[in-house]
Specification:
Blueprint: H1 6-15, E1 18-22, H2 31-41, E2 45-49, E3 57-58, E4 61-62, E5 76-79, H3 86-100, E6 104-107, H4 114-122, E7 126-128, H5 133-141, H6 143-146, E8 160-162, E9 168-170
Parallel strand pairs: 1-2, 1-5, 5-6, 6-7
Antiparallel strand pairs: 3-4, 8-9
Helix pairs in contact: 3-4
């Protein structure tokens, strides 16, 4: 798993407001469905991108066929597809970067693509691979710790919680 400083992940989760989730699914047992629902419940705007469901809705959000169809703004493109598709999605994100305002390219757990990483970084995007924003949010908010999961954060202060719009608030 690529290593990223907690400060980077926390900064991304604080600054991002709108996420285009490429590979979002309306199937309630798919991980993308759970991640989308969680992020929506935490105050993020999540725009599902899935050509097979374009024009329909997932969790009340209109589904778009591709990033070129998504209305701005989009702070982060979250790739919820197999790694072999990541370079093409990265190219689309870069092509739409200025129109949408994209500054983060995020690849979900299990999605590692050095090619996609290079495409994103060369275009000036912050790139994260093999991580889940839902899990990272839960880790920093302390929610994972509430469930007995080691969140790998040790301190003597009350846990930080995310407030409306993804900002952090101390209990």
């Amino acid at each position: 798993m690529p290593s990223y400083p907690d400060s980077l992940i926390r900064s991304i989760l604080r600054s991002v407001k709108t996420i285009a989730m490429v590979g979002a699914s309306s199937n309630e047992i798919r991980p993308s469905y759970f991640a989308m629902m969680y992020l929506l419940n935490k105050g993020y705007k999540v725009i599902p991108v899935n050509p097979g469901a374009a024009g329909k809705t997932i969790l009340g959000q209109t589904v778009y066929a591709s990033l070129k169809d998504v209305p701005p703004p989009v702070d982060m493109v979250d790739i919820f597809r197999e790694a072999r598709y990541a370079p093409q999605i990265a190219r689309e994100a870069v092509a739409e970067k200025d129109r949408l305002g994209v500054h983060v390219l995020w690849m979900q757990l299990g999605v590692v693509s050095e090619e996609a990483e290079t495409i994103g970084k060369e275009a000036g995007l912050t790139v994260v691979m093999d991580r889940c924003p839902k899990i990272e949010h839960g880790r920093f908010s302390g929610e994972l710790g509430w469930m007995g999961v080691n969140r790998k954060v040790i301190d003597n202060r009350k846990p930080l919680l995310f407030g409306k719009g993804g900002s952090l608030n101390r209990l």
